[in-house]
Amino acid sequence: MSRSIDEITNTILNEQEKFKLLQKNIDNFNSSKVDTNEIFELNKQLQNLEKQTQKLAKASNSGALLLTSAMLIKDTVSHGQTCKIEAEALKLLAENLNSISEDVNFIYSHCSMSFISDKTIIDNFNKIYAEANQPIIEKDWKKRITSKVNEYVKISTIKDKNSAQLSDKTKFLEKIKSFVDNNDFNSAIKEIEKQKEILENNDIKLWYQTTKNQLTFYKSLSNIIANALQIMKVENVRNEYEQNQTELE
After folding, report:
1. What's the pTM value of the predicted model, to 2 decimals?
2. Can you tell me the distance from the alpha carbon of 136 to that of 195, in angstroms, rounded to the nearest whole number?
3. What does DSSP assign to residue 116?
4. 20 to 30 Å CA-CA from 13: which of 29, 69, 166, 178?
5. Those residues with Cβ within 8 angstroms of residue 195's Cβ, 6 or more apart along the chain or in another chain
6. C-beta separation of 131 from 177 below 8 A
7. 146 pLDDT band (50/70/90 cuts)?
């Protein structure tokens, strides 16, 4: 019981201390005498906050808007959607920027393109490669017999030259396939452009055009983002200079 009484006493003392502290705060609040130093410090903080707000407002410049537009396009196409509206906004924002006009025009003219994943690009090429390496079965029974005889007796004919060309084509496709399998699509595109006769194959031509357009689209978008960041940097320096001039005045 004695222990309980002590605990109750301590609790009452603690509550009394809390009450005294609360009363002191109320008295300070109701006091007509105000510390001028506190008001001055508070006013200074408000002024700094206002300056920061103005600085942030100035940051909403052409560079920031351009960057936002480019990032919206990137996000849209990453979800497999077309970016016609976003591309129109980008074209308006970059109307007087000659340094990225070519990139902007490419994005604007290809905004309705269907974008595919890297995995799909690889799978599509592997299908083409597999079909190109399938053995050709002659339907004519005479040609089939001749082909079988030639497996045992080597006869030099014009057809041998065609076979050699076919072998070269297979090796060429293997080289491209090695780039594609390593996600090095740029090298694959450059390799195809070295031997453009391979584009006579409609499947390869379609793969080439689709992949190249997609690579160019993303490269153009990266150029626009880089330019937007550079513009923001320049404008930020200019805003800071103007702010310093205003403070000096």
Report:
1. 0.63
2. 23
3. -
4. 29
5. 172
6. no
7. low
